[in-house]
Every structure is written in C-alpha cells, then in structure tokens.
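Practice record 12: protein with flavin-adenine dinucleotide.
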Amino acid sequence: MGRFDSGAARLNPVSFVGQATQATFHMTVSHWRRSAQSPTTLDVGTCIVGAGVCGVSAAIALQKRNESFVILERHALASGASSRNAGFLMRGAACHYAEAIDLYGRAPARDLWRFTEANLEGLRHEGCESLESYRRIPSTLLALRAGDSGEVWEPDAAYAKLNRAGLERSLTLMREDGLEVGWLEPGDKAAPADSAWKSGRISCALVNPSDASVNSYQLMKLLAGKLASPVLENQEVFGIEDGEGRSLLHDAAATNQPTPNPLPRGGGFGKVVVRAADFTVRCERVLVCTNACASLLLPQFENLVKPRRGQMLGLAPNGRTLAASYYANDGSEYFRQAADGTIVVGGCRTYFAEQEVGFEDRTTANVQNALESFARAMLGYSKSEPLPIISRWAGTMGFSPDGLPLIGPIAPQSPVWFCGGFTGHGMSMGYKAAHEAVDAMLSGREPLFSISRV
Ligand SMILES: Cc1cc2nc3c(=O)[nH]c(=O)nc-3n(C[C@H](O)[C@H](O)[C@H](O)COP(=O)(O)OP(=O)(O)OC[C@H]3O[C@@H](n4cnc5c(N)ncnc54)[C@H](O)[C@@H]3O)c2cc1C
C-alpha cells in the first residue's frame, strides 16, 4: 500500500533505479543442495512459485481450465505480503486518477481502474463476501489540511494545496470517464461523523463508493481452500532448468552453474525442471509469483522489482469508529477499521525511504513513531493519552519502475513467466493479474502489463 517511488513523492524523493543505499541480494545454493536428488518428482503442466494472492489465484485460474499445476512455496501459505497488508480492496493504483493519466495516458488509466474493479468482482465470485471480516465499505483518498506540528506526515501549505488540486482534477476526470466517484468536504451532510472526520484534519475526500476491505489472511485461506491440490509449503525453489540441466533463470554465463544431475524428459512433460528441497517438478511452463522476492531467484529482475518495506500498527478501537477506509497524503499514510473493530494504520515509509528498502522483516522506531503520531492526529488522541496499540508488523512490497504490474516471459520465448510488481496494491490487482497471466501464457498472446514495456 502507499505511493510508489515515481520521483514525485512529497518528501525525500528517491530515484527508482540505481539507489545507492540498497544492497544487492541474490539467492545462492550450496553444492550439496544443488546436487541432491529430490525424493519426489512431479509431472504437471504448470509449476507456480509462491503462494501469495498472485500464485494462489493463478492456480485457481488453471484449475478452472482443468490444467494441472503445483504451487511450491518457500515458507507457508501467504507468509509474504499477502497476509501482512492493510486489507484494502481498493480501486485504482498507488496514485490518484489524474496522476495516473499523466503517467500512463487516459485510456490506460481508465482501463487500470476498470481492471481493479474487475479484481474485486473476481474475489466476490470466489465468495469473499461470505468472510466475517469482509466489509463493503468506501475507500477515500484524503487531502489533509496544512499544519505546523512538525510531524513528518503533516502537509505544509504548498503540498496540501497541490494534493487537494490533484484530487479535484481526479474527480472531474473520473466523472468524465464514467467512473463511479464521490466527493466530501468537512461540513457536508454526507460526511460521516466518524473519528477521522472529527479530527478536523481532513480538507477533502475523493470517494470510491464500491470498494471493500478484508482480513487478508482469511481471504488467502478462502482462496487456497478452492484448490484441489494443496500448496507445497517449505519448498523454496532454487533452480529452474531446461531438460539438459541448463538454468533458465538468467543468461549470465558467469553465474550459470551446470546441474550435476539433470533429469531426463519424460511422461510428455519435462520441458522445464523446477527444483525445490523435497520436490523436482517436470513441467511445460513456470509462473513465478514471488513479487518482492523476484530478484532473489531472477537476478535480472533487480531493477524491475524493488523490495520496499511497509510497516503497520494495530490499535484497539477504544471508542473510535471509522466509516470508510482512508488513504491520505497521496497514499503515503492509510488507515481503516476491521470488522472486529481493530484499527490498522500504515505508511510513513516515504519519509524514511532510503531505510525502508530490502527484504528485512522488522519494524523500526522512526517509522513506528511517525505512525503513532499520525494515528493520534487522525483518531483524536492527545499526546499524553496512551495509544491502545495491540500489534506492530512489517511486510515487503514489490515496486515496479512505473507502478504497474509486470506480466510475461522472463526472456523472449521463455517458458518461465513472471507475474508481480504490484507496487503495494496486489490485493486489489493480484487475482485479476494472475488470471491475465494464465490466459496469456496458455494462449501464447501478449499479456496486459507486459514486461516487454520495461
Ligand atoms: C504493509 C503492507 C500493506 C499493504 N496494504 C495493501 C492493501 O491494503 N491493499 C492492497 O491491495 N495491497 C496491499 N499491500 C500489497 C499486497 O499485500 C501485495 O501487493 C500482494 O500481497 C502481493 O502478492 P503476491 O502474491 O504477488 O506476493 P506475496 O504475497 O509476497 O507472495 C510471494 C510468495 O512467494 C514466496 N517465495 C518467494 N521466493 C520463493 C522461492 N524462491 N520459492 C518458493 N516461494 C517463494 C514467498 O514466501 C511468498 O509467500 C500491502 C503490502 C504491505 C507490505
């Protein structure tokens, strides 16, 4: 969740490519593991790597077509971002509609908004409305009033004006393009009398009336429960090869280590061989759905999918209510109330952007302090009142260079495809993107959001 590093960020703008502070990590595999014969060989049509919302949705798409598949997951179902997010099922992308038009063009922006509407529709078809945590609730993009508290998240007058103008422009353009949209200002009869509006911080809100929110782990269990064959957990994929043992992951000769025990082709499968701890999979094609971790397996993705840490905190409701899900300061901060009353608050990454990179799963004092001060302001807690914090956590998002998903073969004609790069919005795009990847992969057509554009 949150805005992407387009260079237009309000504070601490970062250039996306060539960030000096980010260390490079690639997965290495010991000789012992690489040369070990896996006890079990599986023959399937498609091997999916990663059991987040993207991988599991891809499996659902394949199952609907009676195509055989297996999902190999290095940890457990939804152990990545898919159970660590804020649970917004929100229309649109990291930026607001007018900015999306500036970045992508008018028709592509409208198609993207429709794509995310279709994502939610697809999740509804899978039964997400039956979950106790599912809420059909508007999400609102907030421009905040300028303040002088000195808190990192508090807009100055220039940014507050710009942010509001951007949302106003989005409202006009969305109406012109036939997208359902609402607008609220303080004092409007329709503005909810909830804690966020009572805070006095809101300048205006652009409303997506038909959005939803959910406990993402519950959603992932629902989706995985649809699969005829279970996710194979604790199976980190460390090699993808052709039938002769040549790596298909990259073509850098220097790192291309031959495999000591190439598997023979067999059973009509075997064009591709995928290696994990306890399984060797012979298959026709592979769909890598590892999102933020892409470059660990696919070194050539280092500049395509950047790992960006998102941090969150959870608060007991303590009498606070939120009638919508809120996305403030161009998505830099966000908060919503879960069906059980818990309030989750996330963001503040952009103010510490150089630090919030990489794969490390931990919370940090400066981001958490900023989140606390934001929560105090938006939920009406004074500085002396203790915040009823019940949890803190982090997750890693995969940011693409232009904020759009990346779908397609990892090299021309390769049987290995990638789907990911959701730039903090994968719960709102991943189901539909996975279906698009599967359809394009099986039919041989160019996918939407093709990797070839970058
Ligand atoms: C704090 C935070 C808040 C967010 N809030 C929202 C939100 O409110 N709404 C929204 O739409 N999006 C949100 N997102 C983004 C969203 O969660 C992600 O875009 C989405 O979950 C990505 O799904 P995925 O399946 O592509 O990746 P992931 O869920 O990360 O799944 C990738 C899987 O691949 C596995 N894997 C990696 N390498 C290997 C390997 N070599 N072998 C086998 N398995 C491997 C990982 O263990 C992981 O389970 C948020 C993200 C964060 C971190």
